[in-house]
Amino acid sequence: MDQRKCECGHTNPVGTLLCESCGKPLNVEIHEQTSFPDMRYEGMARRSQTNKTKVIDRIWNFFSSVKIAIGIIIVILVASAVGTIFPQQMYIPVPVPTEADVARFYTETYGTLGTIFYGLGFHNMYSSWWFVTLLVMLGTSLVICSLDRVVPLYKALKKPRLNQHKSFLKGQKLFAEGELAPEDNQEAILDASALALKEKGYRIFRTERAIMAEKGRFSRWGPYINHIGLILFLVGTLMRSLPGFYLDEYVWVREGQTMAIPNTPYYIKNENYTTEYWSEEEMPEQLELKGGAIVKSYKTEAILYENKSADVPGKKPDLVEVQKGPIVVNHPMEQDSLYIYQSGVQEMQLGALNFTVVDLKNNKKEIGLIKIDLYNPQPEQTIADGFTVRILDYFPDFIMGKDGKPATKTNLPKNPMVALELIGENGNYNEKLVYLEGTILTQKNDPRYGLEIKMPDLIDIAGLNVRVDKALPLIYFGSFIFLAGVAIGMFWQHRRVWVQTQEGSIMVAAHTNKNWFGLRREVDGLVKQAELPVTIEDKTKAKA
Amino acid sequence: MNKSNRTYVRIAVLGVLLVALVFALYSSFVKDPGAVKVGSDAPNFSLEQLNGPELTLESLKGKGVILNFWGTWCEPCKKEMPALQQQYTKFKDKGLVVVGVNIGESPVAVEPFVKQFGIDFPILLDRQSQITKLYRIGPIPTTFFIDPDGEVQEIFIGQLDEAMIESKITKILP
């Protein structure tokens, strides 16, 4: 007894609201328009409204419910919001090497609420198993809700019903009825109506005593198209976790340095970095820059190498040049699916210190030049005949240690201290000196040789962002499909007008999924042009 | 479509979605598939040695390896150096190698430091911090205890003392 028999004799599947054959509402007594079934799925039974016996059907039915979908969305929304109350673990501004440090950070910074936040795992929420599960459940619901509705809808719209049951027509929001005089030619009236509607761009379906006019049916597919777009988008984001599909690295490369790009077989060399500024002549109008300047371009001249022996990391590379050229903001260097973007710069950084050794006892006569490359200092250099300079100690970022000995804060030459030994006269003379913070400290009170500080070498360090994102085309394509679906559903309407004659009376009914005002105008035009003897009872106003 | 067909279609659709769920969960659990963990093989690498030839980790198979990442600017690294040296002297004949990986410094900066502490175990220079990145080194010192099969037995972040090193060495000696 799970089938519903209509009085017209047609047997409908469970869940049908409007008889598939004649359109009469089933099991619903039409007293007011509010109780007329929803036209959203043409009164068809959704796929899930069957017997709920098998497990697979139960799961299907669960996900086919829009209520469940809305529930999932609300849970995701609330959870996403809660996750932003305190920073996620990756955004903690201080180093937290161990899990205990992480826990302590939340408790000490945010008190009890922080402890709860951490305890419930909200500090790593967006990649937690339950959040990811919710997202996949939303995707599942999207797929199943769509499938469950689009199939019956497609079937219903594919074969439009003519000769609707009177109660179907009466149930429509826009309905009109009138008496026909015995001398009226029913055929002629329907012909005139069809012509009037055709002029308005409707597609006409006709039987002897009824016409159905329809336009904009494709707008009904809009929601399903945008769901397909969303699913493609989700698949794209999932694909990013496949090996080789996604890479996001950042490397700082000094001028002259060749640097390995992590997780790729490539090395990149920074030949030269330049920041270019707009000159005043190039500007269309005088600007009050107050001594400032506007940057025209940030540019790294780079060479990309491929390491042919990339099997063992750290091993001396066997580099082959694959590409050479400038990298400018928004104009990345491309190699297969790899993109290298100009993304940051540290300008005018200390690269090397320069000194001249002078003979203090001989009118400051120049002996020779010393260059100390701060990234790769040479332990010993010969600057003149029989005169060498040795580096005894080098602290790139000088700090006085707690034990009273010099030390370094970092491995970057931010505040270099160098202890040098000058060995002259073929080894017969030696003298120790220290360079620190722009001054020379000497060991002897009355040294023979001295150092004069010259302009240091200043270099630029380019920050390059290296990216691979093979899923991006799919993500863009999905977004495009989504927007197309939204536009189709938003800017077009599915309008239908029924005109039927029956035992001396004529009925006009109309339905649209939006823009009732536009539909009303078209029906008014129809009544006027075809001179239909009807008055329209408008039920839309009451609702609006 | 008849009813049994419909069931098959549903099973297929739900199956595909289940695969997506498993994949999504897997990738959220294994955030960094390349991370070095206890029980995984220590990734092989090769680096230039301070005052010596290039050294490849794989060539040390058959020995217990203490892989210590350090820098001259790091106070606890300085403090644990003598302990590492002591244990190296004590156990090197029993198949222990201590390998110090210096992070991004020049030989001129490293050499006096090594001399000061009288270190005679191999010191490798990771000039571009490539191996430091490969091993996902955060705070230093970080020390890996690798057994003769090349499997990581323990990862320790922080300063070690002799007793700690000695107790951990038992796990990795051949």
What topology does this entry show?
The complex is a heterodimer of chains A (544) and B (174).
Chain A: E1 4-5, E2 11-12, H1 55-63, H2 66-82, H3 99-119, H4 129-158, H5 166-171, E3 174-179, H6 186-199, E4 203-206, E5 210-215, H7 222-239, E6 246-254, E7 258-260, E8 266-277, E9 295-307, E10 319-328, E11 333-335, E12 338-359, E13 365-373, E14 380-384, E15 387-395, E16 398-400, E17 406-408, E18 417-424, E19 429-436, E20 439-442, E21 449-453, E22 457-469, H8 472-491, E23 495-502, E24 505-512, H9 516-529, E25 535-538, H10 540-543
Antiparallel strand pairs in A: 1-2, 3-24, 3-25, 4-5, 5-23, 6-22, 7-8, 8-9, 9-10, 11-12, 12-13, 12-21, 12-22, 14-15, 15-18, 16-17, 18-19, 19-20, 23-24
Helix pairs in contact in A: 2-4, 4-7, 6-9, 7-8
Chain B: H1 3-29, E1 46-49, E2 52-56, E3 64-70, H2 75-91, E4 96-103, H3 107-116, E5 123-126, H4 130-134, E6 142-146, E7 152-157, H5 162-169
Parallel strand pairs in B: 3-4, 4-5
Antiparallel strand pairs in B: 1-2, 1-5, 3-6, 6-7
Strand content of chain B: 15-25%
Radius of gyration of chain A: 40 Å
Oligomeric state, counting identical vs distinct chains: heterodimer
Task: Work out the count of structural domains of chain B.
Answer: 2
Domain ResB-like (chain A): 66-437, 455-524
Membrane topology (chain A): Multi-pass membrane protein
Protein name (chain A): Cytochrome c biogenesis protein ResB
InterPro entries (chain A): Cyt_c_bgen_Ccs1/CcsB/ResB, ResB-like_domain
